[in-house]
Amino acid sequence: MQADVDNSGSIDYGEFIAATLHLNKVQKEDNLFAAFSYFDKDGSGYITQDELQRAFEEFGIEDVQVEEMMKEVDQNNVSAPVISCGLKSINYLS
């Protein structure tokens, strides 16, 4: 991303803000994708009920009703409960 939008040879305040907001957004999206990828062990782009259950077990969290959680977040309404990752389709502007 070129910060000097008006090609003046310097970056004014508005250009600085625009560039940093863009970088902040990219960083947040990268962090979200990294967190999602931690749960998505098989790299399918989905977090299955089994993968979520394993993550809870890894952290020693017991007595979690994973099936109920999946029903609340499963917007795809698929037969096998999964959470999908829409972040894989993000195209970063350069």
Automatic annotation (TrEMBL):
Source species, domain of life: Eukaryota
GO molecular function annotation: calcium ion binding
InterPro entries in UniProt: Centrin_CML-like (IPR050145), EF-hand-dom_pair (IPR011992), EF_Hand_1_Ca_BS (IPR018247), EF_hand_dom (IPR002048)
Keyword field contains Calcium: yes
Keyword presence, Flavoprotein: no
Short name of one Pfam family: EF-hand_5
Keyword entries, A-Z: Calcium, Repeat
Ranges for domain EF-hand: 1-26, 27-62
SUPFAM superfamilies documented for this protein: EF-hand
Gene3D superfamilies the record matches: EF-hand
Protein name (Swiss-Prot/TrEMBL): EF-hand domain-containing protein
Native species: Thlaspi arvense
